[in-house]
Design brief:
- Helix content is about 30%, strand content about 30%.
- A hairpin with a 4-residue loop joins strand 11 and strand 12.
- The longest helix is centred in the N-terminal third of the chain and has 57 residues.
C-alpha cells in the first residue's frame, strides 16, 4: 500500500510537469502560427510595394517611385494594422546571374526597386514566459524589363524607322544606330490614335521597302536568331488567319507551320516577306480581329519591328526582315479610302502571350514588371 500511494503521488507530480510543458508548447504553437501569418501578410505588402514602384520607375517616375511604394504597402494590413515601410526603399539594378540587388540612385539608370516592410508583432500566450514583442520584416525586389519574344506575333514586320519617325522628327534618328531608351518607352505609353496616328502601308517602292504594302510576312521565322533554319508557311490564307485569330489559335498556327511546335518569334530572327500587296487578306484579317472596319476600343497587337532588310547570315532567308524589337501596335481599324491599316504605337506591361527571354532593365515596347526576390 505504501508503494502504491507513493506511485500515485509521483504520477500527479509528473502530470503537473507535463501539463506545464504542453501548455507552453501550445502557447508557442499559437504564437508561431500568428507570426507566420504576419510574415505572409508582410511579404504581400512588400511584393505589392515593389511591383508598384518598379512600374512607376519604368514610366519615368524617378524618386517619386518611393512614394508609390509606401502608398501601395499601406493598402495592405498586417495583424489588422498598416505595416511600416522602412526608409530604405532602394533603387538599383539586378543580376540574374548572381541573384543580387545592387543599390544605385534614382537618376542612375535604375530599373529595380527593393522594398522592406516592418511590423512590430505582439506575442500572446508567450508573454507568460516573458516574451512580449518581436519585429519582423520582409524584403522584395521587383524589376522592370522587356520581353524579347512572343507566341502571339501578328504577320507584320513594321519598320523600326517608322516608330522613330513618330517619336522624333522624321529622319533625325536612324534605325541602324539608335536604341530605345526608358524615356522613349514612357512616351510610347501615352501615345494615342488622335495625336500619333500611323498607317501601315507602303505606297511606293521608295518607302521603307518595296516588299508588300503592309510589310506582310510569313511565320514562323525563315531563320532564327541562332542561325538555324525555320519553316514558314506559304499562302495568303494563313496570313489573314494570323491577323484575326486569338493568341491561343495563333500560337498553334505558327507552331504547326514550323513543324516543331515552336510558336515564338524573337528579337534577332529573320522574317520572310509575303508576296503581293495583300489588300484583300489584310482587310479581312482586320475585320476578323475587330468585328468590322473599326476597332472600338483599339486592339493591342504584337508585331516584329525590323531595323534592316536583306539576306540572313545563315543563308536560310533571302530578302528578309531582321527583327530588332517586339513592338506593340494598337490597331484602330481599316481605312477603306486608302486601303490601309490604321493605328498607333504603344506599350504594354502585360506579359500575356509573351515568352522566351526576359531582359531585366531592357527598354522594349513590351514591358514586363516581375518579382525577382
Amino acid at each position: 500500500m505504501f508503494h502504491q500511494r507513493e506511485r500515485r503521488g509521483f504520477t500527479l507530480i509528473l502530470m503537473s510537469f507535463m501539463l506545464t510543458i504542453l501548455i507552453g508548447a501550445a502557447a508557442f504553437a499559437v504564437d508561431f502560427s500568428r507570426m507566420s501569418l504576419y510574415r505572409t501578410q508582410l511579404r504581400s505588402a512588400a511584393d505589392a510595394a515593389a511591383l508598384a514602384a518598379a512600374f512607376r520607375l519604368s514610366q519615368g517616375g524617378g524618386s517619386a517611385s518611393a512614394d508609390t511604394a509606401v502608398a501601395y504597402a499601406s493598402k495592405n494590413t498586417v495583424g489588422g494594422t498598416t505595416p511600416l515601410v522602412l526608409a530604405d526603399v532602394l533603387p538599383g539594378t539586378w543580376s540574374d546571374a548572381t541573384k543580387a540587388f545592387t543599390q544605385t540612385s534614382w537618376a542612375a539608370g535604375s530599373y529595380a526597386v527593393q522594398v522592406t516592410t516592418r511590423y512590430n508583432a505582439s506575442f500572446g500566450f508567450a508573454k507568460i514566459f516573458g516574451l512580449t514583442n518581436r519585429t519582423i520584416t520582409a524584403t522584395a525586389v521587383a524589376v522592370a524589363g522587356g520581353a524579347t519574344s512572343s507566341s502571339c506575333v501578328r504577320p507584320w514586320a513594321i519598320p523600326y524607322q517608322a516608330m522613330l519617325d513618330v517619336l522624333y522628327s522624321p529622319g533625325s534618328k536612324s534605325a541602324a544606330t539608335y536604341d530605345l531608351t526608358t524615356a522613349d518607352i514612357a512616351r510610347l505609353a501615352v501615345m494615342t490614335s488622335a495625336s500619333n496616328p500611323v498607317t501601315l502601308k507602303v505606297g511606293t517602292g521608295s518607302n521603307y521597302t518595296a516588299n508588300g504594302q503592309f510589310w506582310a510576312v510569313q511565320l514562323p521565322p525563315g531563320e532564327y536568331a541562332n542561325g538555324t533554319a525555320g519553316s514558314p508557311w506559304s499562302g495568303g490564307s494563313n496570313y489573314r488567319t494570323a491577323i484575326g485569330d486569338d493568341c491561343t489559335a495563333l500560337a498553334a498556327l505558327i507552331g504547326g507551320a514550323s513543324g516543331n511546335a515552336n510558336p515564338y518569334v524573337s528579337v534577332g530572327d529573320w522574317l520572310s516577306p509575303e508576296t503581293g500587296n495583300k489588300v484583300g487578306p489584310t482587310q479581312q484579317g482586320v475585320d476578323d480581329q475587330c468585328g468590322s472596319d473599326v476597332c472600338s476600343p483599339a486592339r493591342k497587337l504584337i508585331a516584329g519591328m525590323w531595323d534592316s532588310y536583306g539576306n540572313a547570315p545563315g543563308g536560310h532567308c533571302s530578302g528578309c526582315y531582321h527583327i530588332k524589337y517586339m513592338a506593340i501596335f494598337s490597331l484602330t481599324g481599316w481605312d477603306n479610302a486608302n486601303n490601309a491599316v490604321t493605328g498607333y504605337f504603344n506599350t504594354t506591361t502585360s506579359a500575356s502571350g509573351t515568352g522566351g527571354t526576359f531582359v531585366a532593365g531592357g527598354a522594349s515596347p513590351i514591358q514586363v514588371i516581375a518579382l525577382v526576390k
